[in-house]
C-alpha cells in the first residue's frame, strides 16, 4: 500500500463528532446523549465513589489554583482533579474517548487544543454553582468546556441539579442524565448548576485549552 493511501485512511469521518462540530458552530453548545454507555458510566461512577469515600475530594474554589477563595454562596461542589498519567482503568476508558474527540477537533477545526484538564465533581444535596463563565480571572486559555454526567439511571427532574445554559435569548435547562455529554464554548456561554434537591450529583468536568 502506498503512503498516500495510508494517509487517506487515517481520516475517517465520524458522524457523531461532525454533529458536535456543527452544533458548536451554530449555537456554541452541543448535547450528546449516551456519549458513554450505561456500563461505562457505572465503571466511571464506581471510580468516582471509591475516591470520594477515600476522602480525596476537596471543596471547590473560585478562581484557579493561584487565586483560591472558598465561597459556598457561589459554588458548593467537591472536586478531585484527574491525572491521566496515573489513570485507573475507568479513567483510561474516559480519556480514550475524549482524546479521540480532541484529535478529531484538531484535525477538522484548527482549534489548536494543546492541553486538557478534567476533574471529578460531586454536588451534595443543597449545593449549586451560581451563573458564571468558565474563563475567569487568569485563565483565558479554556476554549471548550465539557461535562459528563455519572448519575444513576433513575435521576429524576425533581432531583434538580440542572445545568442551565444562557444565551442572548433564553435559558436552557439540561438534566444531568447518565452518559450525557454537554460541550460548550467556555469563553461565550454563561451557565449555572441549579440547586441539587435530592441525592448526590456526580460528574466529570473539564476543559480543552489552547496554549
Ligand atoms: C463547572 C460547571 C457544570 C455542570 O464546573 O464549571 O459549570 O453541569 N459545571 O456540572
Ligand atoms: Mn462552569
Ordered list of secondary-structure elements with their pairings:
Layout: H1 3-10, H2 15-27, E1 29-32, H3 38-53, E2 58-59, E3 78-81, H4 89-109, E4 115-123, E5 129-132, E6 142-149, E7 163-166, E8 171-174, E9 181-185, E10 190-193, E11 201-209
Antiparallel strand pairs: 1-9, 2-3, 3-4, 4-11, 5-10, 6-9, 6-11, 7-8, 7-10
The structure holds N-oxalylglycine and manganese (II) ion (MN).
Notes on the protein architecture:
The strands form two sheets. The chain has a seven-stranded antiparallel β-sheet. Strands 5-10-7-8 form a four-stranded antiparallel β-sheet, with no helix packed on it. The radius of gyration is 17 Å and the shape is globular. It has one domain (17-209): q2cbj1_9rhob like domain (Jelly Rolls). The chain has 211 residues and is an alpha+beta fold. It is built from four helices and eleven strands. The structure holds N-oxalylglycine and manganese (II) ion (MN).
